[in-house]
Amino acid sequence: MDTSLALNTETTVETIQFIVISIGGEQYGIDIKYVDNIIRMTKITRVPDVQHYFEGVINLRGEVVPVMSLRKKADLPVIDLTDESRIVIIKLENNAPVGIIVDSVKEVVTLPTNSIESANKNSKKTQVTFLSGIGKFDNRLISLLDLNAVLAEDAV
Amino acid sequence: MDVNQYLEIFLDETAEHLQNLSDQLMILENEPENEDTINEIFRAAHSLKGMAGTMGYKRMQNLTHDMENVFTEIRAGNMKVTSRLIDVLFQTLDALEEYKDTIQATSDEGTNDNAAIIKELQTILDEGLGKAPAKEDAPAEKSQGEEKSEEGGDKKWEEIKLNEEQINAVREADEKGLNVFGCTVTIQDSCVLKAARAFLVFKAIEDLGEVIESLPSSQDIEDEKFDFDFCMIVTSGEDFDKVEEAVLSVSEIEKVTGEKLDINSFLNRDSEGGKEEEKKAESKEDKEEDEKSIEETKPAVAAASPAPAAGANQQQAKKPGAGKPVVNRTVRVDIEKLDVLMNLVSELIIAKNSIVSVASGDNTNNSALNEQIGYLENVTTNLHESIMKVRMVPIETVVNRFPKMVRDLSKKLNKKMNLYMSGEDTELDRTVVDELGDPLMHLLRNSADHGLETAEIRLQRGKPEAGSIFLDAYQEGNNVHIEVRDDGNGIDVEAVRQKAIERGTVTPEQAALLSDKEVIDMLFQPSFSTAKVVTDVSGRGVGLDVVKSKIEALGGDVTVKTKLGEGTTFSVRLPLTLAIIQALMVVVSDEKYAIALGSIDTIESVNKSDVKYVEAKEVITLRENVIPIIRLRPVLGIEEEEGSDTREDMIVVVVKKGDQLAGLVVDDLIGQQEVVIKSLGKYINCSSRVISGATILGDGEVALILDANILI
Question: N or C: which end of chain B has fewer CB within 10 A?
Fold first, then answer.
């Protein structure tokens, strides 16, 4: 029912596409316009004396791209990488690309803007600082990542 | 017409003329009688005036006009070059430079009239001529113009055929009391954009009157279908002088000749043919006589100048070909486009490296493949070199303003000094050269102010009265060295030590322990100046630290050598290129690192038992030098496994920074390789700065580049 509602309003309401990724069983959405690429795990070269959440740098088609672990950034327990693990290459406007390691990449969803709730209503959630809002899709809730916050330097 | 499209040309040419003026004035200061120099200055001033006039920069035009006047008289031998004049001329130059900068920034010349300089020039002019009247120069120039028109004798405009309509137009103009001129304009043969200049000439004349017809036709002129001169019939309410002045205000115009035409004889010549020609010639002579008599009535000064001026005119006609290269065949390329090309070459090199690593991994001896790789290697290396060359510019562009600066400093500080430069043609990457000006200027000022003693002390010490500053540049391997050397006082190490204690930078106890070298290095710390007096020139303590940070930002370093009483040498070392370097690949644990070959001194195998301890730090003795060793594993955050390394010998890469050496302990060596430097980007922040970048190896793996300078 929700789907049909979404479809009906699609013609009039603006929509945003999100890439759904999962970390620790929870699903997060990343605005597709910032996603440059999604790649399988590749050899990461460790860089000494950097922020703890940066795993190192990779070679992305001849470019050196830094890669961070979203788990480490969000202070989640670190798990071993699996076949499902991916690096999502993010490119914010006019900035150099940066990779984010996620447990897996699920799908692409299209959300009408009116089914997105701003994050501050759920301010009691733990990782609220990284979220820009919550999207409702089917019967699921998808936390939408605020990439600027994710990529911002840690205060600590 | 929109002159803005010529703004860029104007600025380029102005900069060129100003540099030329500066150079020539330096020569003139030493050889006040040098005629070539005087002529050259006159020409440069004249061209500047013309260009400024065309672009509508009146203040700039006025200033150059006065400068030109002075040189008109000097050329004519009516006055001599004095040191006072040179000073004022240098001021003029500074003022012109200022106009240029303002124009560059705002496309307007600003509002500074520089009246003081103009007045000073006038005074000198008057005094030099031993006369009071200030207005004298204007007629002088005019008569010179007339002289030109007479000696020209090039009456090509007589060949112009007019059609019915144009004849009517001429008659009409005559009836209205307008003057009708025939005139020939000659463009300098060094001119590149003849059509554009011709267009400006037409434009200039149309402000005063009307061009009835030209030969070649205006269409041909537009298509550049003419040699270096063209002629035209002009109607105007103004005198020919005015027209001539307007035309000459266009730059790169060699000369203008012309005269007022007798309408009837001119228009009748077609119908009456040869006879009319004779009449014409007669009437012309009359005219000339008329003009001469007019001239005689003019002041004596005016009469004195034309003859030599005319002679110089001829010289001027010959000069351009000899003085300048005919046309510089250059293409302007946006640096961004070059960067793109550069990146492509980088990728090509990476691709080449991949093939090399694939081929070497494979044990089957494939000689054909290796041959091709060798070929590819040649091509990529050559391509890389030629692209780097495109980006290379001689440091001349930066250092050629220094002679004048040192001269100014000499006056300001009241010390006699000379600057000797060598190796101005040494080339560096454009981005480096652009950044080089400030640090070098600081070093020169530093030498002039702190380094050189006053004349009295110099004489006491048995040194020549005039101090010498040397600026030497040369290339050595992948580096360019620039040395700023003076024969002054040298650095008083004790004074610096005292100063450091005074400032509380170090305690007296610490100070006593510091080596001379360490003390001198303190000079590079922010806000540290030993000059007892703060002067305009230096002593504010913002100098050497700026130099150091700027040079280091360019990937180079600065070192000092000094001997008290004998002088100081600052040596600046800069990498030839920024993007691709030769590096030594080493292994630490299981990680690969690149160390720039430029910073490596030697590679040694050192027995573990040879490691000694000094102040709890590990050192080794190498050819009688005690050098500290740095174990890279802890530096790079790799945990040392106890007893994992059972080898007796350690591999030590000895790196140097200036005179300092340090040994880096690595696990293994891979070999020398050309690496393309890539930035780590702004997100990742290496707090210890030991990693200066990354590079991509042949197998696609990323290796980090170690900055040995940080480790020492």
Answer: N
